[in-house]
């Protein structure tokens, strides 16, 4: 299904388990935090968590703008 969507528009798969994303064929992969809280960390202060989430979204936006020829994991 990922490959069909990618034919129309670029997609970023944000996930906690990168090998699963690779197995299903995701092309742009952004690792996230943890299974119960993929886009946050409730142990952080609200300000720290906002910064963490913003960083993940900015990384995903960078991944969308990057030309790729094979599966790529965006860790920075």
| Contiguous helical run count | 3
- Strand arrangement in the largest pleated sheet: 1-2-3
Q: How much strand?
A: 5-15%
**Can you give the mean pLDDT?**
91
Number of domains: 1
Question: How many strands, which pairing sense, and closed or not: the largest β-sheet?
Answer: 3 strands, parallel
> Order of helices and strands, N to C?
HEHEHE
Instruction: Give the low-confidence spans.
Output: none
Number of DSSP E strands? 3
Structural features, described:
Helices cover 42% and strands 13% of the residues. The chain has 76 residues and is an alpha/beta fold. The protein has one domain (2-71). Strands 1-2-3 form a 3-stranded parallel beta sheet, sandwiched between helices. The N and C termini lie far apart (26 Å). The mean pLDDT is 91.
List keywords for this structure.
76 residues, alpha/beta, three-stranded parallel β-sheet, 3 strands, globular
Question: What is the compact description of this entry?
Answer:
With 76 residues, the chain is α/β, with parallel strands linked by helices.
Give the SSE map.
Blueprint: H1 2-6, E1 12-15, H2 18-24, E2 28-31, H3 46-65, E3 72-73
Parallel strand pairs: 1-2, 2-3
């Amino acid at each position: 299904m990922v490959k069909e969507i990618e034919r129309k528009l670029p997609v970023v798969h944000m996930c906690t388990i990168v090998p699963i994303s690779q197995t299903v064929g995701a092309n742009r992969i952004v690792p996230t935090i943890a299974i119960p809280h993929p886009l946050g960390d409730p142990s952080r202060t609200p300000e720290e968590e906002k910064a963490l989430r913003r960083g993940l979204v900015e990384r995903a936006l960078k991944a969308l703008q990057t030309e790729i020829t094979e599966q790529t994991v965006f860790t920075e």
